[in-house]
Amino acid sequence: MANESRRQQSRGAKSGRSPWREQAESYLSHHHKVARDSARRLWQSPLASMMTWTVMGVALALPVALMLLLASLEGVSAGWESSARVTAYLGDSVSIDEAQALKATVTDDSRVAEVELIDRDTALEEFRASSGLEDALDYLDENPLPHTLLVTPSESSRTADGVEMLLTVVEGLDGVERVQVDLGWLQRLNAMTDLLGRAVWALAMLLAAAVVLVIGNTVRLAIENRRDEILVAKLVGGTDAFVRRPFLYTGAWFGLGGGIVALILLQLSLWWLSGPVERLAGLYRSEFSLNGLSLDGALALIIAAMLLGWLGAWLAVKRHLDDIEPGEIAGG
């Protein structure tokens, strides 16, 4: 009696569960089973799977590596922009009092953070100490150097466009004979990095398309190898979604493996190049360094790789699954 009562309670508990919950559990259970079976099939052919992962890894790592290089270059150019100063050479007839007045005028500009006045006597002494021409300078009848203003732009103006606007303002002041700022090479560098950035994005899209095609071809071969299994599944009433699901998981697993291979290749490349790059930057007294992917970037790369793998599998299944119909069995 006790056993019978427990069985009735168990049947009552099962019947009390809502149908949508049972459907959800069955749906998730089938997804878990299909995902595990797809991964097992990949491991059963490790050489072919590794070759596909390597192709995907190389195709994904190349544009990402170029993007990291461009990001490092942009960081260095931004640092040089922030340290750029406008040098204004005053006319020979400008007195020290007039130079002080010009300094005050430039300081009042909101685009200016700091102005330093170097009078001609201080400039001559600095040149005498740094050039080693003390004896030759003693023969000069008068000081040939002008008063100089060193203008440091504000934070909001420390860009190529901001410095050019400030340059125009300083050039228009009375008493300023010549203004110098060496931003031409920086503008050329920014133009080159912009061009390279566009080229990298074009290359990334081409390689992404190549990844989709590689995965699509691999999944197409898997569909052909499992053709009889697909026919039987359709014959017993399997829906297209049911038949498509294992191949979509196969594409996602290929993407996951390709993303991991790409991360490994990136880290190995950075480790191999970091030493020579640091030595070269040290020779130029630059703080340039190669930066790797952050945790968010690594996760984004893996997710993007899985989406590309899923897309390639979906396209292959969409293209070839409709060609397989249960009528082939009857015709055979």
UniProtKB/TrEMBL annotation:
Coiled coil: none annotated. Residues 85-179 form the FtsX extracellular domain. Part of the ABC transporter FtsEX involved in cellular division. Residues 203-318 form the ABC3 transporter permease C-terminal domain. InterPro entries: ABC3_permease_C, FtsX, FtsX_ECD, FtsX_proteobact-type. This is Cell division protein FtsX. Forms a membrane-associated complex with FtsE. The lineage of its organism: Bacteria, Pseudomonadati, Pseudomonadota, Gammaproteobacteria, Pseudomonadales. It comes from the Bacteria. The keyword Cell division applies. GO terms for biological process: cell division. Keywords: Cell cycle, Cell division, Cell inner membrane, Cell membrane, Membrane, Transmembrane, Transmembrane helix. The chain crosses the membrane at residues 50-73, 199-219, 252-273, 293-317. It comes from Marinobacter orientalis. It is a multi-pass membrane protein. It is found in: Cell inner membrane. Pfam families: FtsX, FtsX_ECD. The gene is ftsX. One of its GO terms (cellular component) is plasma membrane. Residues 1-24 are annotated as: Disordered. Belongs to the ABC-4 integral membrane protein family. FtsX subfamily. Its main location: membrane.
